Amino acid sequence: MSGNNYRLLLLTLHIMGAIVAFGATFTFPFIGALAQKPGAPIPWFLRLNHLIERKLVLPIALTIQPATGALLIVQSKGTFNPFRSNGRWLGAAIIIYIIAISFTVFVQDRNAIKALKMAEAQEFGPEFGGLMKKLGQGGQFLSLLLVAIIILMVVKPGSHIFHS
Questions:
Q1: Which of 22, 39, 96, 150 has the lowest CB atom count within 10 Å?
Q2: In 3-state terms, what secondary structure has residue 49?
Q3: Which long-range contacts (CB under 8 A, 24 or more apart) does 97-101 make?
Q4: What pLDDT digit, counting tens, does each position of 47-65 carry?
Q5: Global pTM?
Q6: C-alpha atoms less than 13 angstroms from C-alpha of 43 in its C-beta half-sphere
């Protein structure tokens, strides 16, 4: 496979991984809105979000995205170097990605599991409400980080990539 074809394959896998994994997370607010309807099966909706997160989002976010991203950097032979001034956009995107993944794994996922256990036990008191509010705010934070990454990856500020 030629270098250009290899790069296109990696880029396609990287973009498809982002669409499949992170696109799914934009459904969470809609699922949450349905769960708030009177008589809604709240545990079912929380299990659905948890299933999407554990079986789709995290596996891709922890494997395909970093692997294809790293291979794209290596394959670029210095064109996309996060340690050079014209690659600061990439360094920033990587740092934001690490923050987002860390927040997801160490904060959001733990809160989601706790909320699911509380819902399955029918414990819908103030603690559950506060936890759901935290999850909503955490989701907004993660969406903001994702949009920032997308903007950096598309615009590539300071890279002069569009000035050739």
A1: 39
A2: helix
A3: 97/65, 97/145, 97/149, 99/145, 100/142, 100/145, 100/146, 100/149, 101/61, 101/62
A4: 999 999 999 999 999 999 9
A5: 0.90
A6: 8
